[in-house]
Amino acid sequence: MPTDRYDPQTIEPKWQRIWAETELYRVDLHRAQRPFYNLTEFPYPSAEALHVGHVYTYSGADTFGRYRRLRGDDVFQPTGFDAFGIHSENHALRIGRHPMELTVENTARYRRQMEQLGTLFDWAHAVDTSHPAYYRWTQWLFLQLYKAGLAYRAKAPVNWCPSCLTVLANEQVIDGACERCDAAVVQREMEQWFLRITAYADRLLAGHARADFPSTTVALQRNWIGRSEGAEIRFETIGGPDITVFTTRPDTLFGATYLVLAPEHPAVAELTAPERAAEVQAYVQQAAGMRELERLATSREKTGVYTGAQAVNPATGERIPIWVADYVLVSYGTGAIMAVPAHDERDYAFARAHGLPAPVVIAAASAAPDAQRPAQGGDERGGGGAYTGEGVLVNSGPFSGLPTAEARARITAWLEEGGHGRAAVTYRLRD
Fold this sequence. Notes:
single chain; alpha+beta; Rossmann fold; Isoleucyl-tRNA Synthetase, domain 2; 3 domains; 3-stranded antiparallel beta sheet
């Protein structure tokens, strides 16, 4: 047919009607010889119509589904509407309509548009998350998780959008602003429901051996889970509560010259000296407006304030200062770290910025005979920065001369015997 005779207003509705009447894309799942499940995310009807982002998402999935269909698969490609969320509610509030009425209208409009795209969706199996027939099962599922001890309430810092009145994932915060409305995002502590996915962290890691995933996907997931083996070490403080830290390098304990608490750590207020309270409180408030990604950026200057409190290093018996700094996150480990400037890059940068000592307690195996003395920072070891590799312990009392791997086990056992610590595992993955 010549292109100048193609009339989409006439031809496309005709074939869309035929496809609907013949249920062209409906699959008999009970009799399917080669069933293939092709699922893409549901749209949430929180606007007047679909936008090009929806088309971008569905065209890719639809192309793949058609490819499988041409190869002889019985492709089941369902869809639905994520219509029971905060975005739909906020849209209704903006235009002054009842969410239920608006959702019915929007889902009908979205469906018409998705049908006009000619997608492979099986509309006989479409779902709407705002229907009681659907959400009764999400409620049932939640109750099973609750009964199994996998759902619980707790307080935690979150990214809060004061305009959308909702919590945002890190990926939804762009340059400190909400990706949907551009309002400035703030950090807020909120009590909320958590699902205990961390209880499955080791099973998820073990499952990679049986999953047919690309190596890059496995690497991303392993990093996302972030399993870390190490030790929890208890530091006594002078006149305050004990501070427990998690470290993957207990072999560096003799080089810990200060502690750092996350600004949200519950012990900050109790440990802060009265004469430093105003400065510490101002710093805590400043950190509350920052995202985690900002706080962890390696290019940032390492800021912090001294609380006026001191702890005792259980290995050396020396008093060490307790600081508050935003490069420590309350959500990882215990929300507190022992800082070893000579052997951690972030600690080294902080120590250089604030004039804190950095004694060497690990030397590369080849350099061990020449490293049996304290040092102040990386430059006195013949190079800048921290030495973070493996080697041999130096300046570490009875553990000097041990290879770092052996020293980690020996120092952890010594801490357990003395009641100052224990072996521990932590995860980057969060509930």
